[in-house]
Write a structure and sequence with these properties.
Blueprint lengths: L2 H26 L5 E3 L15 E4 L3 E2 L7 E5 L6 E8 L3 H16 L4 E4 L10 E12 L5 E11 L6 E9 L5 H25 L6
Parallel strand pairs: 1-5, 2-6, 2-7, 3-7
Antiparallel strand pairs: 4-5, 7-8, 8-9
Helix pairs in contact: 2-3
């Protein structure tokens, strides 16, 4: 008779320990990451531009190719936000936003992506390398990029280096993402001017 209460107490103790372990694990689990996206920024409309502009897939520096947002690459180390993520792959998001921004700045053009469902023979192409897109030691968002535009039949592309510094208007990741949006808008301004001044237009 004395064995049954003992076994019951032991079973209750085991269940209590198991419940405590599960509660501890639940308490240690990370919350769902916050997801962010870059917003298109309006810019100056250009009076002339090629009829069809094809934006090639944007190349992004490998240290930026991650779901987590890179806060900074200063002082020989990456400051990566473990729980603040991009809502889509960064290169794809930059391409999408840049196409939208170029379409606004070049109303006489149809701007398409090279990997989209819509295809057409382009009158000009755009290629972009993103070399840096993070904050410096002073907290400024730095966008460093190379852009090449080429009209159909043009033997050599027009090349230009860009570097923009934007002070975030708010602290933390929301401020950084807003600054990235502003910097990408400036990049779109520069590329739109390059396209508008191509020597060959159609």
């Amino acid at each position: 008779m004395t064995g049954k209460p003992h076994r019951r107490r032991r079973a209750v103790a085991i269940l209590g320990i198991a419940g405590g372990v599960l509660a501890a694990l639940a308490g240690c689990s990370s919350p769902d990451p916050a997801l962010y996206t870059i917003a298109a920024a309006p810019g100056v409309v250009q009076p002339r531009s090629p009829k069809i502009v094809l934006v090639q897939q944007i190349a992004v520096a490998h240290f930026l190719e991650r779901s987590q947002i890179v806060r900074s690459s200063e002082n020989y180390r990456l400051d990566v936000m473990s729980n603040d993520w991009w809502g889509e792959p960064l290169a794809a998001m930059l391409s999408r936003v840049l196409i939208e921004e170029l379409g606004q700045r070049l109303p006489q053009s149809t701007v398409i992506a090279d990997n989209g469902a819509v295809t057409a023979r382009p009158n000009a192409t755009v290629e972009v390398n993103i070399q840096r897109l993070d904050e410096d030691a002073a907290g400024n968002l730095i966008l460093q990029a190379q852009a090449a535009v080429r009209a159909t039949g043009q033997p050599q592309p027009e090349l230009r280096n860009f570097r923009f510094s934007v002070m975030p208007s708010a602290p933390g990741i929301p401020g950084e993402v807003a600054a990235i949006s502003a910097a990408v808008g400036r990049l779109a301004d520069g590329i739109a001017v390059m396209l508008a001044t191509l020597p060959v237009r159609a």
